[in-house]
Amino acid sequence: MIYRFKVWFEEEEDINRVIDIQPGATFLDFHNTILDSIGFKKDLPTSFYCSDDNWRKGKEISLTDSSKLLMANVKIKDHVNDPHQKFIMITDFNEQWTLNIELQSIQNDVSGIAYPFVFRSVGKAPKQNEGIGRFKIVDETEFDEIANKLVSKHAPMIDEDFDDEGFGEEGYLS
Question: Measured between alpha carbons, how far is 8 from 99 in angstroms, rounded to an integer?
């Protein structure tokens, strides 16, 4: 038997992965598979949270915080209590990359496939450490165009023939 989970960025559901994993696998196995599938670093602080149907965080399962449940010691099957079980995964606590995870189905495993297995990959994941935007990366040319539009839209109109006599130092009529 395998669990089939859909994993997507909280801000961008169009970028998603479907991952098949055995119930006896650990959350560390799941963590590594998810981060490999989106090209993120695996050594940054990360936690899974059991979630309810409204995406509220519950019990925390941590990568390294020994005061909580540790991913390496916790099996996924021990926290699947619903046919559409939800988890939230937050990685890189500085950037707060948040992934929503939902159990899609429970299926028979297929012989010859090594699990965990990325069944489907949709969309290109954002770069983890770009620092200028999570889902819309703007290059220098686009940035200059946007800046010029903003400046021209909000710059005061300058009239070359304007006579400023009668105005005080602060620009008010005297």
Answer: 5
- Per the listing, tokens 């940035």 go with 143
Tally of helices (H runs) and strands (E runs) in the chain: 2, 8
Compute the distance between CA of residue 33 and CA of residue 164 in angstroms, rounded to an integer. Answer: 68
* 91: DSSP letter: E
The owner of tokens 């159990």 is 103
The neighbouring-strand residues paired with 87 are 50, 101
Q: Are residues 131 and 30 in contact, defined by beta-carbon separation less than 8 angstroms?
A: no
Lowest mean pLDDT among 4-18, 23-37, 85-99, 133-147: 133-147
Residue 126, preceding peptide bond in cis (omega within 30° of 0): no
CA dihedral 62, 67, 72, 77 (to 10 degrees): -80
CB of 8 closer than 8 Å to CB of 99: yes
Distance CA 63, CA 35 (A): 13
Contact 84, 50 (CB under 8 A): no
* Cα distance between residue 50 and residue 92, in whole Å: 18
- pTM listed for this prediction: 0.74
